[in-house]
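Q: My collaborator sent me two sequences in one message, no labels, and asked for predicted structures for both. Can we handle them in order? The first one she listed is below.
A: Yes, handling them in the order given. First sequence, followed by its structure tokens:
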Amino acid sequence: MTLKVWFDDDACASLLTVGVAALGAAVANGTPDVSYCRGLVDALRASCVAFRVPWRPFLADLCALLATRGALDALQAADSTLLQPGARG
């Protein structure tokens, strides 16, 4: 049996930090590259599975944080399905 190194809240916060930074940077450089963003969202989804972080609440938190940075509108303009819970690339 292995020791539980991460608390669930720590894993979620770490993944949110990466998501906000990477998606925010993609938007800051102009029109975001949808393929890059979709790959990042898929990587975040896979990481959530690995750390047992529920995807839908995570995605809601990510969208809320992106909205406060003004990045959510640009991402949705680039591809309206990018940050939807059931959307697949």
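Q: And the one she listed second?
A: Here it is, processed independently of the first:
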Amino acid sequence: MMHRVLSLAAALALVVFVGAAIAADKPADKAADNTVTGTVAKIADGKITVTDKDGKDHAMAVAKDAKITCDGKECKLEDLKEKTAVTVTTKKDGDNTVATTIEAKTK
């Protein structure tokens, strides 16, 4: 009898653990919907174009108050060079996609 109770408790713990792991993945997937990771293709007139790993270009305006970092330090849009690895977080502003955070990695 005790063996059945322990087996049932172990199975229940496994179900709870797996369920929690799956639930924890959901917000990360949602966050990925507004994030573009790739390399800088073009920067001009307050806009950035990023080429993702599939070769698709994502053009977006850069918000005036966007947080831009280069290797963890604050920098300016003009500091970014073509082919620099970036992760851009965006938001929708009407019909336009606007970059609110740009994290560049040059190293």
